């Protein structure tokens, strides 16, 4: 069985102020061409098809186009909803669409019911685990305390139970949208931390031949059998070093995995440049970035005049300008944003308690803070779900 593993299309998303719809359409064309030319037997899309619960019309039209093109090829496609998608909206018409070979898996309760495809060696069961927001699915899976690990483990128990009842030799693929331990994140993924923990161990997927993951935007292999395809396009400058690609996976008769990266077309390379403005304008080594999308970090002690206009004269696709004057760490003028960089909301709250009281929160208080942040996230997710109905 040969299948193409992709995820995190984020249809409708912009890159800074650049509309990415044309680039997303180019990716869709590349995807369809790859399926045809590499003779893929199936396509799996591991969530975040759209960038938000209520996507713009142009994004919906592009999604409709790719569904028709894949259906016309006669290649079965399995898709799950991600944390950016509205599961309810994405799943509308799933029963009818399934007759065309496009299988939308958006209901947590159905995670143990696979799409079964056949090849010359027998059955391959594709299990779709949509993004599982712990606070919203804890009752469905009967977990005492909602956490990503608990609900994913419960979902995988259903997968393994179904697989155990199938014919010997049935191979298995799981689609999931989660942050798995060992994965490398970027700035463009939405935080899914619950209970102070975002990641789940890769061992939760033991017992299946391949776990096709979505959520993280960098293509990476947690193990031979557990992989992220990454997003096909960049959505933040933290992805400047990414190689945007999909996985072309071959699953042999014994369930052995062979995976090949298939590069995706990217409209422009990304570049992060740093230094005093005059140096950036004069450095001949930066000529290679003159046609790139650029994030420039200026280290001048005093903010220069008209920096964006001057940068754009050499780097016409400059999209982001950051001021980071080089100062000693104890300089009182070090910006508040720099002090908070890389810290979670919960860590910032703990630091604030320590600042005003002289001592940080104790164990009980930390639990109260954690529960408060989890409740806010669950409330936000619930409101977004309601708005998408």
TrEMBL record:
Domain Nuclease SbcCD subunit D C-terminal: 267-355
Keyword annotations of the record: DNA recombination, DNA replication, Endonuclease, Exonuclease, Hydrolase, Nuclease
UniProt key word Hydrolase: yes
SUPFAM superfamilies: Metallo-dependent phosphatases
One GO MF term attached to the UniProt entry: exonuclease activity
The Calcineurin-like phosphoesterase domain, residue ranges: 1-217
One Pfam entry name: Metallophos
Similarity remark: Belongs to the SbcD family.
Subunit structure: Heterodimer of SbcC and SbcD.
Cited function: SbcCD cleaves DNA hairpin structures. These structures can inhibit DNA replication and are intermediates in certain DNA recombination reactions. The complex acts as a 3'->5' double strand exonuclease that can open hairpins. It also has a 5' single-strand endonuclease activity.
Protein name: Nuclease SbcCD subunit D
């Amino acid at each position: 069985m040969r299948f193409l593993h992709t995820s995190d299309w984020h249809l409708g998303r912009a890159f800074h102020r650049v509309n990415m719809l044309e680039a997303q359409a180019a990716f869709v064309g590349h995807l369809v061409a790859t399926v045809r030319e590499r003779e893929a037997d199936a396509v799996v899309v591991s969530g975040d098809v759209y960038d938000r619960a209520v996507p713009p019309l142009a994004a919906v039209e592009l999604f409709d186009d790719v569904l028709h093109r894949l259906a016309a090829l006669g290649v079965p496609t399995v898709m799950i909803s991600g944390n950016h998608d509205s599961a309810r909206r994405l799943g509308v018409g799933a029963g009818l669409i399934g007759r065309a070979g496009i299988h939308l898996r958006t209901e947590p309760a159905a995670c143990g019911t696979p799409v079964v495809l056949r090849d010359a060696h027998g059955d391959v069961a594709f299990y779709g685990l949509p993004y599982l927001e712990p606070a919203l699915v804890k009752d469905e899976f009967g977990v005492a305390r909602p956490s990503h690990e608990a609900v994913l483990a419960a979902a995988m128990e259903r997968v393994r139970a179904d697989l155990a009842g199938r014919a010997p030799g049935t191979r298995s693929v799981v689609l999931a949208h989660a942050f798995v331990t060992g994965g490398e994140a970027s700035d463009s993924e939405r935080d899914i931390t619950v209970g102070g923990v975002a990641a789940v161990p890769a061992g939760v997927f033991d017992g299946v031949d391949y776990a096709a993951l979505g959520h993280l935007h960098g293509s990476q292999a947690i193990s031979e059998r557990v992989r992220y395809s990454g997003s096909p396009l960049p959505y933040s400058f933290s992805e400047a070093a990414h190689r945007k690609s999909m996985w072309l996976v071959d699953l042999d008769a014994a369930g052995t995995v062979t995976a090949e990266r298939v590069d995706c077309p990217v409209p422009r390379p990304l570049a992060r440049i740093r230094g005093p403005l005059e140096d950036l304008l004069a450095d001949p080594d930066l000529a290679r970035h003159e046609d790139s999308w650029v994030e420039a970090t200026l280290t001048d002690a005093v903010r220069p005049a008209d920096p964006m206009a001057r940068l754009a004269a050499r780097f016409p696709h400059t999209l982001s300008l950051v001021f980071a004057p080089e100062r000693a760490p104890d300089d009182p003028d070090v910006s508040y944003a720099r002090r908070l960089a890389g810290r979670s909301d919960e860590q910032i709250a703990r630091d604030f308690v320590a600042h005003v009281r002289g001592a940080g929160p104790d164990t009980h208080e930390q639990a109260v803070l954690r529960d408060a942040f989890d409740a806010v996230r669950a409330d936000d997710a619930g409101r977004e779900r309601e708005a998408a109905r």
